[in-house]
Amino acid sequence: MRTKLSVNINKVALIRNSRGANLPDLVQFARDCENYGADGITVHPRPDERHVRYNDLALLKDVITTELNVEGYPSEKFMKVVLNVQPHQCTLVPDPPGALTSDKGWEIKKEKIFLTNIISSLRDRGIRTSLFINPDVSQVDAASEVGAHRIELYTGDFARDYFIDKEKAIAGHVECAKRAGKLGIEVNAGHDLNLDNLAYYAKSVPLLAEVSIGHALISDALYFGISNVIGMYKNLL
Ligand code: PXP
Questions:
Q1: Could you tell me if 131 and 153 are in contact, meaning their C-beta atoms sit under 8 angstroms apart?
Q2: Beta carbon of 192 within 6 Å of any ligand 1 atom
């Protein structure tokens, strides 16, 4: 199984928003990413809409021919838009409203009823649901109990520790992926994955269905161009 690369285009929306007009054109950028080989497009609308905006989602869904993954905290507003747009995948993250970026996963047991209901409404609309979690086996078990199709393992700590002790940094991820495989849950991963650490991550973690990468990939595109960078990342998978 080849791990899919979903390109997170939030940073492109951030540049667009900084000038108020439509440059760069987010929808065109998403299509170009697909043409250059992306297996999917990820966006993460945040409550202040500083990157992608809620009204971008339907426009993106209309043109994307691979998969649209929408991440975010399942607020009333977020759920209304997601259930309406029906992306291929919805990744639920526990971010508080002002979060700079997602830096931890759900404590699923504490939110069991809330998440069970949210996942059930997404399932009813045929939307695959992934829960963002820290690499902790008890969270994988809990994700299965609330009915998630997938987990997304938070890789921020892995990326931070990669150059210190990569075997130690990856151990929890491997264990979680094995447990997920036994429970019939698929595994995604994301946060701070980059050209240095991606190959090791992808070869070490079994049954890795998808990585979503934004910050490093878009930063690399400033030097290498988006048409080259997507291939560079895919070659590592
Ligand atoms: N997964 C989740 C849940 C995220 O919030 C983000 C950042 O928006 C990513 C993956 C991608 O992280 P990065 O931008 O560091 O590649």
A1: no
A2: yes
Contact in structure between 44 and 13 (CB atoms under 8 Å): no
**pLDDT at residue 100 in the model:** 84
What percentage of the chain has pLDDT greater than the value 70?
A: 100
Tens digits of per-residue pLDDT, 182-209?
999 999 999 999 999 999 999 999 999 9
Say how far apart CA 33 and CA 105 lie, in whole Å.
28
- Cite the active site residues: 44, 71, 191
Q: Is the dihedral of CA 69, 75, 78, 83 positive or negative?
A: positive
Scanning the structure block, which residue is given the tokens 């701070």? 192
- Distance between CA 50 and CA 45 in Å, rounded? 8
Q: Whose CA is nearest to atom 12 of ligand 1?
A: 191
Residue bearing the bigger pLDDT, 104 or 225: 225
What is residue 149's three-state secondary structure?
A: coil
Torsion angles phi and psi, residue 91, rounded to 5: -105, 115
Structural domains of the chain, with CATH? 4-236 (3.20.20.70)
